[in-house]
Write a structure and sequence with these properties.
The structure is a single chain. The chain is of the alpha/beta class and 164 residues long. α1 packs across α7. The protein is globular. The chain starts with a strand and ends with a helix.
């Protein structure tokens, strides 16, 4: 087993997609599965109603990429229910699973970071996800990336993969 899947967990605006893009430039044969993009297929549905469907579709993509000898990165908030679903669906793949949670403080999440400008709705959603325990999980590693450069966060993830 040489292939791996890196799940990057965290609240909105934690830097999951930004870290995933840079990480993809530094690993062999990367495929980034952006679950937010899958949501656009059913944009008429309320976002809360699409979560399980999006995970099902994403994990099918993960399986296909692994079967075709890719390493996969999945940046998306992971609830404990979704973590259990991931484990149940990917238990038979020939790849190591890694879980990384980006966990900057909520006050940092609520600020405009980089080029992203948060809407009022996004700020409300950050609070909802925080209350629901997103980015407070007990699996993999947790990184407070609020004082790190993006490359430092990527380096910490790569070191975690190398040593585990």
């Amino acid at each position: 087993m040489n292939r791996f899947v890196i799940f990057i967990d965290g609240n909105m605006n934690a830097g999951k997609s930004t870290v995933a893009k840079l990480l993809a430039k530094q690993i062999d044969r990367p495929a980034v599965v952006e679950i937010d993009e899958l949501r656009h297929f059913v944009s008429w549905m309320d976002v809360r109603d699409t979560i399980r469907l999006n995970w099902e579709n994403a994990l099918l993509l993960v399986k296909n990429f692994i079967k075709n000898d890719f390493n996969v990165i999945v940046p998306y908030p992971i609830s404990i229910d979704n973590y259990n679903f991931i484990i149940s669906q990917l238990g038979d793949i020939d790849a190591k699973l890694y879980f990384v949670t980006l966990n900057p403080p909520t006050k940092v999440l609520l600020k405009n970071r980089g080029t992203r400008r948060l809407s009022g709705r996004e700020k409300i959603r950050i609070g909802e996800l925080d209350q629901n325990g997103i980015a407070k999980q007990k699996y993999g590693i947790m990184i407070d990336n609020s004082r790190q450069k993006i490359q430092e966060t990527v380096d910490e993830i790569l070191e975690y993969i190398k040593t585990n």
